[in-house]
Design a protein that fits this description.
Two copies of one chain form a homodimer. By secondary structure, chain A is of the alpha/beta class. Chain A has five helices and six strands, in the order αααβββαββαβ. A four-stranded parallel β-sheet of chain A has the order 4-3-5-6. Chain A has a two-stranded antiparallel ribbon with strand order 1-2. At the A-B interface, α1, α2, α3, β2 and α4 of A face α1, α2, α3, β2 and α4 of B.
């Protein structure tokens, strides 16, 4: 499809098209837009890809994305290091932080156990959680998503932690605030 | 909104969000996807942006996008250099080329005259068209889009060319092949 373009442009279109949720038409539009950008904006876009790729890494402690060895949440003296909230991905940390209600630490699994997709507990960051529990951690909140895999992962980790004498709780499940009972699915009710 | 992310990541999200038709959620998803790419793929993405920006330029003759001084259509001995098809943008050339029915040359205006947006004839590539008509060009086909601006631009250029004794035609307008009369707007009918 991109044979009609000059090679440099069709390469760029192909790159955009390889991104999730970007089709061929959108990829064309994005590529043309990039061509129309001033040189310094295009340069800064390219740089930001490489910079993000090289600078962003996982926190040694909580596995959340950071640009230093230990992320700003783990290294903050203001956070309550007695509570760890276990989430599936970095986006979940953002969601929790936006509420401003949680003052503990996080642990990011980077996935959930999913035998259907061949993802076992060894493929996610469970083993990094256990060493964190030999201290003053009194509670672990399992905040994985409420799908089948999220539930299974929460139960798996809860069983793993239980012998260590740490309280394990699950994030509350129910009707979202402002939602109508009428439109809530049977299982939630 | 992106303050919760590390700076390198939030910069990348901002860059994606500045692209047309990309909202904040999509920008986040794209940025996370780029982070998950292998290093060489991310490098090649960044390179393709810079390469497209530096290599792609306008053909000296027809103003279409190319990576050489004169594009492959203008320099092809197989094309009929007696007919020039005037289009609004490089995408229109692709659309025409895909039909495989047109064997003449193109002229890309890079826009249309639009007083509402402050775009005059001097802002588009009209002046580059006139010198091309002092030769063996016998026909100019105006293939601008059929909106108000496209029509006005076609009429403007036709008047400009008329004194030079070149035949000016307009691309046929009507019901698209396969379309129902029922769903065709009044003006087209």
């Amino acid at each position: 499809m991109t044979d009609y373009y000059v090679p440099a442009l069709s390469q760029l279109i192909d790159h955009f098209e390889s991104l999730p949720s970007i089709g061929h038409k959108t990829a064309q539009r994005l590529a043309f837009y990039v061509l129309s950008l001033p040189q310094e904006r295009a340069q800064s876009f390219a740089d930001s890809i490489l910079h993000a790729k090289s600078a962003v890494r996982c926190c040694d402690v909580c596995q959340n994305l950071t640009d230093s060895d230990v992320c700003h949440i783990c290294s903050s003296p203001k956070r309550d290091n007695g509570i760890i909230c276990v989430v599936e991905g970095p986006k979940d940390v953002i969601s929790m932080e936006k509420t401003g209600e949680f003052n503990g630490l996080y642990h990011v699994l980077h996935g959930v156990v999913s035998p259907m997709d061949g993802i076992s507990a060894d493929d996610i960051r469970v083993k990094e959680l256990l060493p964190r529990l030999n201290g003053n951690v009194s509670e672990v909140i399992m905040a994985t998503n409420s799908g089948v895999e999220g539930e299974a992962t929460a139960i798996y980790i809860a069983r793993l932690i239980k012998p260590m004498g740490v309280k394990v709780t699950r994030i509350a499940q129910g009707i979202p605030i402002g939602a109508d009972l009428e439109f809530t699915d049977k299982i939630t009710l």
